[in-house]
Amino acid sequence: xxxxxxxxxxxxxxxxxxxxxxxxxxxxxxxxxxxxxxxxxxxxxxxxxxxxxxxxxxxxxxxxxxxxxxxxxxxxxxxxxxxxxxxxxxxxxxxxxxxxxxxxxxxxxxxxxxxxxxxxxxxxxxxxxxxxxxxxxxxxxxxxxxxxxxxxxxxxxxxxxxxxxxxxxxxxxxxxxxxxxxxxxxxxxxxxxxxxxxxxxxxxxxxxxxxxxxxxxxxxxxxxxxxxxxxxxxxxxxxxxxxxxxxxxxxxxxxxxxxxxxxxxxxxxxxxxxxxxxxxxxxxxxxxxxxxxxxxxxxxxxxxxxxxxxxxxxxxxxxxxxxxxxxxxxxxxxxxxxxxxxxxxxxxxxxxxxxxxxxxxxxxxxxxxxxxxxxxxxxxxxxxxxxxxxxxxxxxxxxxxxxxxxxxxxxxxxxxxxxxxxxxxxxxxxxxxxxxxxxxxxxxxxxxxxxxxxxxxxxxxxxxxxxxxxxxxxxxxxxxxxxxxxxxxxxxxxxxxxxxxxxxxxxxxxxxxxxxxxxxxxxxxxxxxxxxxxxxxxxxxxxxxxxxxxxxxxxxxxxxxxxxxxxxxxxxxxxxxxxxxxxxxxxxxxxxxxxxxxxxxxxxxxxxxxxxxxxxxxxxxxxxxxxxxxxxxxxxxxxxxxxxxxxxxxxxxxxxxxxxxxxxxxxxxxxxxxxxxxxxxxxxxxxxxxxxxxxxxxxxxxxxxxxxxxxxxxxxxxxxxxxxxxxxxxxxxxxxxxxxxxxxxxxxxxxxxxxxxxxxxxxxxxxxxxxxxxxxxxxxxxxxxxxxxxxxxxxxxxxxxxxxxxxxxxxxxxxxxxxxxxxxxxxxxxxxxxxxxxxxxxxxxxxxxxxxxxxxxxxxxxxxxxxxxxxxxxxxxxxxxxxxxxxxxxxxxxxxxxxxxxxxxxxxxxxxxxxxxxxx
Length: 920
Fold this sequence. Notes:
Blueprint lengths: L7 H4 L11 E6 L7 H5 L6 E3 L1 E2 L2 E2 L6 E5 L8 E7 L12 H28 L4 E2 L7 E2 L4 H29 L2 E3 L6 E3 L15 H8 L1 H20 L4 H9 L23 H22 L6 H23 L15 H7 L1 H25 L14 H17 L8 H20 L7 H28 L12 H29 L4 E4 L7 E4 L11 H29 L17 H14 L2 H27 L6 H13 L3 H33 L8 H8 L14 H16 L6 E7 L1 H15 L9 E6 L3 H8 L1 H4 L1 H4 L28 H9 L22 H4 L10 E5 L20 E3 L22 H11 L3
Helix pairs in contact: 3-4, 3-15, 3-20, 4-5, 4-6, 4-8, 4-9, 4-12, 4-15, 5-11, 6-8, 8-9, 8-11, 9-11, 10-11, 12-13, 12-15, 12-18, 13-14, 15-16, 15-18, 15-20, 16-18, 16-20, 22-23
């Protein structure tokens, strides 16, 4: 490895000697959003947007920049692609702009669970197939992931419905004995006092607009962000003209980065299902007091909701909805050929049923009967249980377990457990309960045993995150965040309404204080137990587990030392600082085992929370809750259950308040920031690079613009002159975009240009993160590099001994693609690596082979970089891909340890650049 302090490296750089500017060095930043002037090594007033003739190659969101005063004798042309504004706000410092940004940021937190569902979708095993819509055969797990996304939308609808229906419309308006008199919650604005003279049904009809409006707001939010990432017309034209290769990798599918239509049919079905849930909730409340109308509407709403869910699962066979077939004859044929029309019809039916329900609530005779709100308790519990079942099924689909069989078996076990806890089988004797418990145990065995057997047969399982359970882990994280946000909404609103119970009055003779009292017999606001049990308990347990793991890890690893690779002799004087930063960076790289443990904790907490919610909701019909109270009282003495319940409420509310405060604090901080990035920072960038395929209201994919733009820039530079070359230089997440752009060139039929491209990456996460989380997109068979195992949490060096040997057989999903392409079975290809088209990759083959020993891809990394990893191996031994940079900042006035940024000024970068373009 060359010494980065050797000035001879820079002096002998061929880019400074050859007068012919035929090499384009194209730099792409990562999640740090490095400004283009920094990437170009100049000031902001000395850069300009690149033009291709009169056409500017960029706008205020993204574009290509170069220096104004470029040396005409230089051999290389230096450009920087800046895409950071795609996930940041436009600059502005007015008060109204800050308020809008704050509201916008809070709404984006609600979208985060949808992003996890989308990540779970792409973590599955799926296959390419040019005969299928979008060029992808979805594979097992696509249907349950789409249904999981639908359940997240319904959870939002249920949370808002609980607040406006149960807490406000019913509990906050209390009729009294006198005619024309009523009571209203004191914290509600006086403008709502007049609603007290309305009937209960009329108030419910009015407030029924709120949950529907909440879903519409989420759809509009996704629409606003989607417009920002619109694929350019000529990029879309290239995709439509391209012919997909039968053996292509997913990144080389032409339509991989084609933006979907904004009016997503799946989005319309989410809205229709939300309307159905509102109708079912209202009708369920009216069933005990109404004759035939309410039960009929309840049945229609459930049937339509089930139909919408079935259509969403059926459509999951492809990533995108197909375009309507041109020239279709007849209305029926046009509807059959257009999913937009089908979804619009289903939404229209849902709206018609909703209007009928509103009419019943306004004019029905049985909608003004006092009593608790009927649909407030069971609805959120059912949705949260459904989310848990789907997420658990997601853990086994990569192993080859059929998604619908897994979901059905888990549903049967869950239903049996529910029946036992609720006491529904007590009238049939103890044998019925024993049989139900046997069903619970059998369902668990029917999932676990086949899953473990299938997993052992997978030779590539060590290359996959969480032993192949990635889809389920991402879904569990979405469940955790979604349950917390829903409970924060319900419990926060309930606590605000309950605050009016206290009476205050001044203290005579002591005005510094006031008397606060809670009158005996005062009414209270009751929040459904599901939001306490699932939301608060899940969030609290997750926080405690994470805290314990971090504390234990810090205590165990606090004095550890990471000696591989060895510290450069020139930096020995800074050994203590470097060792400290290596330890901190290594600890931050343990996200995978932490999330694995968290997912297990979420699963266990869900089971306990479900049991608690069911026991509580059925306490009047079953003696099991009384038995639990007796056991606790006997164990702890006195009225321990009441004390534990009050203490639990306090702890959960504290957790919700702290979480809500953190959300608002981050929203305000981000709104006030000059860069104005989206909330959740790195996590958001990692979620939003994936095409939106699971949840229609999830984060819009900025890669759908960035990847085709990068490919287009390389085409514009290379196509006019066969002597031209491109040095693609990418940092961090920019490496993901760069690799995707190279495969996109093959997808649109320009693989002939790739041998004229060489690749310089630094601070990247392809191998240990993206390659393990999304094996079909960036796994070893895509990159052409060996796999890596999961990092260890308990050892000082989490990556020690984690390099995996090369596996000769392709993954099962890839093998099926190659079989369909008739490659593996062709005897004439004996000794061939199975690659028939450039789109089949891998990346190392795609880049071609330069004359030895000149490399075609070099990756720079340092051990103090918490987000930078080697692309080939952690071994001390040198390899053809990885090179180490020094671990102290190269241009800092005071000595500072380098972490994830500032690779460009290092001499190691100049040396790698020199080697890549030498004699090119």
